[in-house]
Amino acid sequence: xxxxxxxxxxxxxxxxxxxxxxxxxxxxxxxxxxxxxxxxxxxxxxxxxxxxxxxxxxxxxxxxxxxxxxxxxxxxxxxxxxxxxxxxxxxxxxxxxxxxxxxxxxxxxxxxxxxxxxxxxxxxxxxxxxxxxxxxxxxxxxxxxxxxxxxxxxxxxxxxxxxxxxxxxxxxxxxxxxxxxxxxxxxxxxxxxxxxxxxxxxxxxxxxxxxxxxxxxxxxxxxxxxxxxxxxxxxxxxxxxxxxxxxxxxxxxxxxxxxxxxxxxxxxxxxxxxxxxxxxxxxxxxxxxxxxxxxxxxxxxxxxxxxxxxxxxxxxxxxxxxxxxxxxxxxxxxxxxxxxxxxxxxxxxxxxxxxxxxxxxxxxxxxxxxxxx
Length: 373
Fold this sequence. Notes:
The protein has 12 helices and 4 strands; from the N terminus they run H-H-H-H-H-E-E-H-E-E-H-H-H-H-H-H. By secondary structure, the protein is mostly helical. The protein has a two-stranded antiparallel sheet. Pfam families: 7tm_1. It is found in: Cell membrane. This is Probable G-protein coupled receptor 173.
């Protein structure tokens, strides 16, 4: 009798542990969906609503947020349904291919966009004159369209069975099936993703070296001129103060030597990067690098598992490691707003300005002059 009851107890304990695991997965994925949708939508509305944020870095950030919103609203609910049905796909094969295509699309979109952002961050500091002239709204639109085109080109071939889009029960999702490198073209996909991530970090390292080389530049010494009967003479009467004012380093009213120049001439074609602008661009670069670093940290375990499948044919990936890697890649969809609001003072001030308006149902509330509607 004792021997007969042992298998029943074992099966009961296994079913109970499976039910607990399913419940934990559902709760975690539901939390990820809520955080991703709420954070990315708030950040997107903030960028769209505030005119002070209508510039190149925030256009790219808006594109990243909207992509995470679509991923959380379209792809993750199918994962919830598959978990609820015992890691099984209950829809058609075509729908599985569409969901897998979108999952791969958003992964490559984030990688391509983060690389483009790293290049623009380097240009904003190292080549500020070119950046301020060329990085217009339509340039940002062209870059975003290029990123989406490249992402579609990378994700679309497996739809025609060049690779394999199918439901992976161990991952609870429809995704590219990573096989041994002689079986399909998964190696090319993974190499492209690894090259993009490596190139992005190389650009940030180059930016860091540029800042390190220029950190000991001496500030301009302002020598006052001597005035007598409206005649200026001495070391300070060389026009250096006027040149510094044009470049953006000056403070206060326009120098007398520049009264014939329009007041807004120094803002439209500035040759040098002012100290305040340099600090602002540096803070933006730090924020975007943290987003890139978290993308690498949260996706690298899954990338390692993919390379494991590509190069190791005999031994499979341990299930606990694979589950952890998959859920870390899911969590990446909700981390960008957290990083932005923690590291960006401009976003935090604008959020505090606009949040009472949204909470009061559009009532008129005094706003700080920092954010303009």
